[in-house]
Each structure stands twice: as structure tokens, then as C-alpha cells.
Amino acid sequence: MKKTLLWIGSLVVGAIFGVLGLEWLNTTADFVAAVYTRLFQLLAVPTIVLAVITTFATFGSKGSGRIFGRTLIYTLLTTFTAAAVGALLYVVIAPGNLPAEAISSTTQPSDISPQTSLYDHILNVIPNNIVKPFLEGNVLSLLLLAFAVGIGLSKLPEGENKSVVVKGLLGLQELLFLLIRWLIWTLPLGIVAFSAQLSAQVSAGVVADSIGKYVLVVLGGNVIQFFIVLPLFLLARGLNPIHILGKMMPAVLMALFTKSSAATLPVTMESAEQRLGVRKEIARFVLPICTTINMNGCAAFILVTSLFVMQNGCTPLTLGTILLWLLISVVSAVGNAGVPMGCFFLTLSLMSGIGAPVAILGVILPIYTIIDMVETAENVWSDSCVCAMTDHDLK
Fold this sequence. Notes:
The protein has helices at about 1-20, 25-60, 60-95, 100-105, 120-125, 130-135, 140-155, 160-185, 185-205, 210-235, 240-260, 260-275, 280-295, 295-310, 320-335, 340-355, 360-365, 370-395. The protein is mainly alpha-helical. The longest helix has about 35 residues, at about 25-60.
């Protein structure tokens, strides 16, 4: 409770700093926020790899299969529901088309990021050397390597060589968690910086826009998923959503400001194990996987934004079209990286592939910071729910 209050106090202080509009203060906040984001990204990659390897090696591939099965089922259910809520809201609220001049005056998002085909996206997941995925932070490639090494260790006959390797990996993991706890202890300073950074952006009018209904659909869908749908999943398994959210609040708040579920992973795992009481073998297996494939907010964003862009490109939004893109959004979200703006560029890639007017994404770009924050917080909250339900089912 004290830690949560300290974090909330840091949010308030940071917001006040941002509203003051002092250039030196904003520069300092940007620097401190960047430092904390880089440190958590530094710890996130080895956290994912070691967690998966040690879980497979010590828990056994058979037991891990049961955990993975539960994780995958809950991930697909919650992700599909999030996209369905977004589709329903889009039909009910029915955002109108943008004026032509608003589209033509915006920056073409295609100038911001290179395009990647689906073939290249799949091929990039398959590593061709061990070092490259670590250097690039390619989470899916790292998961493949971790699965292979972990399963290999679990199949090795018991002996001194296997024992030395497994103990070494477990020792590295404990050292990593010690570093994570140290970083979390200093995190209120980072929260002040993140909050000041956002407050300054809002004060400067970065999030001003003229597409209120579209934003209402996206954010409304996230809010419904966060406060209604996910708690209903927990209640259906006999779990108290208020208790779980209270214990996982540090991770949810961290996700809100880093806009990266991968960078938040160390805090998510620490909160699940130390505050919520999830068993280590569950938390250290489920959460790294969820960080990669459990993207509730991203699925809703891809669907709603794709429908909005296609509608502005004069594509009729029939029931069949909506259902088709609901499926595409879920599959795409599962393969999306848990990094800032990952959903934006994935949507851009999908729309470019069908020849839709991607210039509309330039209108969305200035307000995407807020959308990305809410989506990431929802993703981490969903990860927490999946982890809690899996732990509950396998007790």
C-alpha cells in the first residue's frame, strides 16, 4: 500500500512539473525517462530468455506444456474479446469520414517507417545466428532459442554437466532479479519523469485532434476491456479482480508510462511473485510468453483503425469484412512485438498491403501517445490476469 501511494504521489508531482512549462525541467524529465526506459529494456531481454530456459529445464517440458496450454487459451480468449468489443463499439458509435484536406495535409506515415511484408515478418522470427536476436531485441526469435535450449536441458540425462549448467542459469536469474529489485526501489524518480514528460506534451497540444469518435471507440474499448471484461474472466475463475489489480498496480502504472510491455516485464514479474504470490515457475514462464503474444489493446487498435482507414478509402464495411478483420487483428496482435508504437506500424503495414489510404494514419499519429499508453497498461493488466488464472487452475 505504501509503495502504491508513493507511486501515485510521484505521478502528481511529475504532472505538476510538466504543467509548469519550464524548458530545463522538461529536458531533465525527458533525460531521466529515457534512462529508466533503457535500463528496463536492458533487463527485459535476459529476463525473458532466462525465465523460459530455467522453467523448461527445471519444471520439465511435460509440465510446461500444461502451463503453455492454459496461457494460450486465456490469451486467445481475452484478445478475441478485446477485438470484438472494439468492433461492437465501432458499429454503435460509427465514426464519420475525415475531410479530404485533413488527410492531404498530414505527414505520410509511410515516410516514417519502412514497410515489411508478412513473409519477411515471419522469416525475421527464424534466427540465423545466436547473437543477432540479442542485439536486435527480437523477442520472438529469443523465445524460439529459449524454448529449444530449455527443452534440450530438460531432455538431458541427469548428471554433473546438466546440474552445473542449470545451477549457473538459476544463479544468473537470481542476480538479474536482484538488479530488478534495486531498479524498482528507485522507480519513483522515474515515475516523476514519465509523468512530467506526458504532462508537458499535453500542455503543448500534442494530443489535440479532430477525430473524437474514433478516439472514443479506441479508448472506450480499452476501458471496457480493462474494467469489465478482464474482471469478469477473473470472477469466472473465482478470483478477486480488485485484489489482483491492487497487487499488480506497480506493473500497470509502469506500462502506462513506458508504453512497452517488454520493458515493463521485470516489474510485472516482481509484482506477480512478491506482491500477488504467484508461484515462480508459473510467473517466470507465463509472463514472458504473454508479453509477446497477449496483446488485447493492440488487437482492438488494429481492428478499429483498419476499419476507420478502409472506411475513409470507400471500402464498404459489411459484416463479413468486419469479421474477417477481427480474425486478422487477433492473429496480427499475437505476433506483434511489445514495444512502443508496435501496433501503429503493424497496422500501417497491413493497410499498405491492401492499398488503403495510409495517409489517414498521419492524422492519428499525434494522438497515438495517449492511445499507446492506455493499450500497454491494458496489455500488462491482461498478462497479469492470465498469469493469475493459470496459477489458480494449476494449483
